Amino acid sequence: MPSPTSPPEPEQPTAADPSETAARSAVKDRFDDLPARPARIGAHRAETPRLRVGVIVLWSVVATVAIVAAGVLSTLFATGRLDFSARSAPGSSSQVVAPQVDTSYEVLVLNATPDAALGDAVRQDVIAAGWAEADVQESNASSDDFPTTTVYYGSTADEAAARGLADAIGGAEVSLDDTYQVVAPPETASAGGDPRSQLVVIVGLDFGSE
């Protein structure tokens, strides 16, 4: 029996009932209903950066230049002053016919200079190149101031022979032109009865000057 003066003994805690503890832990509150990932509430918008005046001016200049250039090109195309189509180099589309000395042609030499001896001199050069004397005729032209010695032929098939004759007399121009062609008399026709082809040499002021 304790004495009246001894201090009271502390009360021992009573063991909690396991059923009560389980009941308290099973009670739900508002924090138990929180979603796994909270939904986004509200929106945050970034402020639009200010455009610099220099950038605006630069793009305005570029746009203006592009519009002007497009207008100029359109005008050039419309007027036909601008053409991007490929152009062939001069002389690339046509082939130069190789000269050929063909003595089957008759040759008429017309002296178109004040020097009366030049006509016969050219005739002798033609004969020396292989032509028969009877096939080479010489006469004076209606003028005496023709500038350039030229061999004229009447058709494209005669070009090689014309170039050969031009080389035979020391060099001359050649030209497709039947203006100076003289109709051959019947006695000069070929064995088949067809008129023989003819080449005409106009002796110009440049002959023998080089």
Structural account:
28% of the residues lie in helices and 12% in strands. By secondary structure, it is of the alpha/beta class. The protein has a domain at 106-203: Alpha-Beta Plaits, CATH 3.30.70. A 5-stranded mixed β-sheet has the order 2-1-5-3-4, with helices on one face. Helix 3 links the parallel strand 1 (106-111) and strand 2. It starts with 17 loop residues before the first helix and ends in a 7-residue tail after the last strand.
Pick out its properties.
210 residues, Alpha-Beta Plaits, five-stranded mixed sheet, 5 strands, transmembrane helix, membrane, LytR/CpsA/Psr_C
| Approximate strand percentage | 5-15%
- CATH fold topology of one domain: Alpha-Beta Plaits
- In N-to-C order, the SSE pattern is HHEHEEHEE
Low-confidence stretches: 88-93
Q: Tell me the number of helical segments per DSSP (H or I, 4 or more residues long).
A: 4
Q: How many strands?
A: 5
What's the pLDDT, averaged over the residues? 75
> Could you describe the largest sheet, including whether it forms a barrel?
5 strands, mixed
CATH architecture of one domain: 2-Layer Sandwich
Secondary-structure-based class equals alpha/beta
Q: Which descriptor suits the 3D outline?
A: rod-shaped
Protein name: LytR/CpsA/Psr regulator C-terminal domain-containing protein
Keywords: Membrane, Transmembrane, Transmembrane helix
Pfam families: LytR_C
